[in-house]
């Protein structure tokens, strides 16, 4: 099927030339309106849509964020449904309402392919005093970098998709594909209600969907685009050690107690060695072996390890070759200790023996690790370590989050379309990469909708998602908007 | 030297009998006036003299408290000097004025011993909504218990001393010793200016002082009095492990970093074993060996270990006998891990690799441990553990607080006098105990003034200092006032 003729593209001699000419006009439009696009991003970043901290005020901000996005989608001409997904149950037993999930549609031409874009508008917590150079909720541009919480994860990419669609609308060009949007506000909190919603909407909203695109991660370079064909899963654990609910004074009780922090530190210290190897017995049993074909793909990746290290501001990685580093980020599991709740965490010198403490750690999972098996292995290991201590305290281990890993077949149609769009807009082949982090939605779409899932990232490697001074480059944001426009055109060509 | 003859005691046939008769009259006076004494305590408790929260309103309350006390001391006939000790520098750079230290004198007979009493009139914060049964600043009597913030720590004991002196004055009896008072208002905030003041006043106010008495802690029993002859010191350490200032996302960096939390957990886990033994090499080298005499003192202490355990709401202590438990609280060092600053410490499941974390722990010190030696041992140990990990991170260990332990010779004169006074007033030998926490003032007096320091507590074990529903029993307050009167008489006998 060819893209619908439009007044501007009709004089062209072939669909391909017409498409090239249209893309040039779309790109010019995007360039000319870039300050407006940045201003919209500024307005979106200004909303403290933090889904992690379970506070009513922040939930209000999330609601406001979703309403802003719904308005913007309606301005594009989309029909928008804000689906209530109920409440989130908190560990303390309370419940907090969750923001609605937006389901939006634009076009339903049965002759066109239907591409569904997934994005999220919630963010990680951020406070200026944690080391931000400016208010994290005031988008600040310095040397072409747009600093702000959510700028790259994931408000910028959601807007880039909207910008691309908006460019077609502004030029009064038919969209070459039908577009659907699913936009949520609880991704950082693990998307508690999303899978159920997707299952429920499988035969309704998702019934005509041919392809799913996610743009919620980063390139592996500052300048070279990438396509992502796999993500790691995650199993997040808490281990609580309790002596009593109240704290103790270390003067009046120090020396006669099994102190919960000593137990906890021993438990956390038993998880991973100094070389990064996870010490939980059996944990590597189901990790897929490396194939020759896979090894070649890693060798082809354009990564200057020294530049990567230095731009990450890290003195040294655990491994010395590009292949080892990338494999340990993408196709091997890793274990990180995140912190301790309930101990003394403020500045100063408080002489407290915390009475009850909770350690937090997670294991990034890879094919073909299995969540229930990992959960059992971790619990057995910690119980073994704890019982050896003969402590009178009480230990409780919980897996509070379990998310599967995902991997796609890079020979699928939309991977080829995306490669061509990248070639057109950026003049280069993309790096074919994975993402070491967890985007559970990819695996859910793959399992439930059973359609091809593509990850088409816009952000540069140094964007610092989840970190202080998160940013997206103006160049990535604007060229990324063009990339999405080019991608729509390439997807249409697949159906020619 | 004999107590000065007085009309009432003169008919007695010996100084000892005269003293016994005088004490009976003093005790009767104290019993008869106990409601007045409780009323004065009520007036003092009503002043919210909180030195912890750096608020101007509370500093005004502290000034009012010190003025009330100065008035009361002047009514006794004392000469009182309110010494300005300047301002307290707050962490945020602001400064707040500190309340004056009162230096008061009553009598300067060169033939009498001079006893200096140290006390403080500031209190820990208290709010009724934290779990107090009544307004913490309205002294409330229930079943002979006088509930109120500061009732036992330290307003009650300061007033008991004043009540004892006042009884001599009311009966127009000469004081058998010269009395000095040093009363401060910043003890709970760490007495920032006190050591300097004591050093400055060493050859002036303190020049004639023979003995120093502190009554700022508790018995180990609800009914049996105690003498305290030692307190532990404290060395507070921070150990920072830094990869970079910013945090990382555990998805995008997990697997290729020496993660600071893994290093820190290994460092903290190397400090103390599951039996509470400190693993820093050499740390026990200077701990005084237990003598037979000491062992007997521990055996004589009246402690129901099971009741102590259950009232502490602890399932099990590390040791099974009274002697082991008390020795590990008082005369052996202990190490407590307080917490971690810079890691994820909130509720929820944040997938962060903290970039820079600071662990906090402290070691309670006992004679004859030496602060610089302990500091060196801890630093060397942590450097050794860290270097074995071959981590690319940066580790910094600091001792941020160093307070010496204190121990007195229980054969000193005033210990003997206090034991006799206790025997006379309470009809029992005291428990000879130590305090596991750190009261730096004792060691400062010992080092600077170089005179005998005695801790003569009045409060019962369940008084709940620093806690909700702090109280002093009416019985302890009134019998304690008699005890101080008896102590003055016994001190005079020492000089007969």
Please summarize the sheet with the most strands of chain A: 6 strands, mixed
Number of domains of chain A: 2
What is the approximate shape of chain A?
globular
The greatest interface between two protein chains, and residues involved on each side, is: A-B, 95 and 82 residues
Cofactor (chains A, B): Mn(2+)
Site (Important for catalytic activity) (chains A, B): 249
Binding site for Mn(2+) 1 (chains A, B): 153, 188, 466
Binding site for Mn(2+) 2 (chains A, B): 120, 153, 216
Can you describe what's shown?
The structure is a homodimer of 496-residue chains. The first copy, chain A, is of the alpha+beta class. Chain A folds into 2 domains: 306 residues, Aminopeptidase (3-Layer(aba) Sandwich), CATH 3.40.630; 129 residues, Alpha-Beta Plaits (2-Layer Sandwich). In chain A, strands 1-4-8-5-9-19 form a 6-stranded mixed beta sheet, sandwiched between helices. Chain A has a 4-stranded antiparallel beta sheet with strand order 13-15-11-16. In chain A, β6 and β7 form a beta hairpin. The longest helix of chain A has 21 residues. Chain A is globular. In chain A, 54% of the residues are buried. The N terminus of chain A is likely disordered. At the A-B interface, β11, α6, α7, α10 and β13 of A face β11, β12, α6, α7 and α10 of B. Chains A, B: Its cofactor is Mn(2+). Chains A, B: It holds the Pfam family Peptidase_M20. Chains A, B: It comes from Rousettus aegyptiacus (Egyptian fruit bat).
């Amino acid at each position: 099927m060819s893209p619908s003729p439009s007044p501007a593209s009709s004089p062209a001699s072939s669909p391909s030339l017409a498409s090239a000419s249209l893309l040039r006009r779309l790109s010019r439009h995007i360039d000319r309106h870039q300050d407006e696009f940045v201003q919209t991003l500024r307005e979106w970043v200004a909303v403290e849509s933090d889904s992690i901290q379970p506070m009513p005020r922040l939930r209000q901000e999330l609601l406001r964020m979703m309403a802003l996005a719904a308005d913007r989608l309606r301005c594009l001409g989309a029909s928008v449904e804000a689906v209530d997904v109920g409440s989130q149950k908190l560990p303390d037993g309370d419940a907090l309402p969750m923001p609605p999930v937006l389901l939006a549609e634009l076009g339903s031409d049965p002759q066109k392919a239907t591409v569904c874009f997934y994005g999220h508008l919630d963010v990680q917590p951020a406070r200026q005093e944690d080391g931000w150079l400016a208010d994290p909720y005031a988008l600040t541009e310095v040397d072409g970098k747009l600093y702000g919480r959510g700028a790259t994860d994931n408000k910028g990419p959601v807007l880039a998709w909207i910008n691309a669609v908006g460019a077609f609308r502004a030029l009064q060009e038919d969209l070459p594909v039908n577009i659907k949007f699913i936009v949520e506000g609880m991704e950082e909190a693990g998307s508690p209600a999303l899978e159920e919603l997707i299952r429920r909407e499988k035969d309704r909203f998702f019934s005509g969907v041919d392809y799913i695109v996610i743009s919620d991660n980063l390139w592996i370079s500052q300048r070279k685009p990438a396509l992502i064909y796999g993500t790691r899963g995650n199993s997040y654990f808490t281990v609580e050690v309790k002596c009593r609910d109240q704290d103790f004074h270390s003067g009046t009780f120090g020396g006669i107690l099994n102190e919960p922090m000593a137990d906890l530190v021993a438990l956390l210290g038993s998880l991973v060695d100094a070389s990064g190897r996870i010490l939980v017995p059996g944990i590597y049993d189901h990790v897929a072996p490396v194939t020759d074909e896979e090894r070649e793909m890693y060798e082809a990746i354009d990564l200057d390890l020294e530049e990567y290290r230095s731009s990450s501001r890290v003195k040294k990685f655990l491994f010395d070759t590009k292949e080892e580093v990338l494999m340990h980020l993408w196709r091997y599991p890793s274990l990180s200790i995140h912190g301790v709740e309930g101990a003394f965490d403020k500045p100063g010198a408080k002489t407290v023996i915390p009475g009850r403490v909770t350690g937090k750690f997670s294991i990034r999972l890879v094919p073909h690790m299995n969540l229930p098996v990992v959960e059992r292995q971790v619990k057995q290991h910690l119980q073994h370590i704890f019982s050896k201590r003969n402590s009178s305290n009480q230990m409780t281990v919980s897996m509070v989050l379990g998310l599967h890993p995902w991997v796609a077949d890079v020979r699928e149609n939309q991977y080829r379309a995306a490669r061509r769009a990248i070639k057109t807009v950026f003049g280069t082949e993309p790096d074919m990469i994975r993402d070491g982090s967890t985007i559970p939605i990819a695996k859910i779409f793959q399992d439930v909708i059973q359609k091809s899932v593509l990850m088409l990232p816009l952000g540069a490697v140094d964007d610092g998602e989840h970190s202080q001074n998160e940013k997206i480059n103006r160049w990535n944001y604007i060229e990324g908007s063009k990339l999405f426009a080019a991608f729509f055109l390439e997807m249409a060509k697949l159906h020619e």
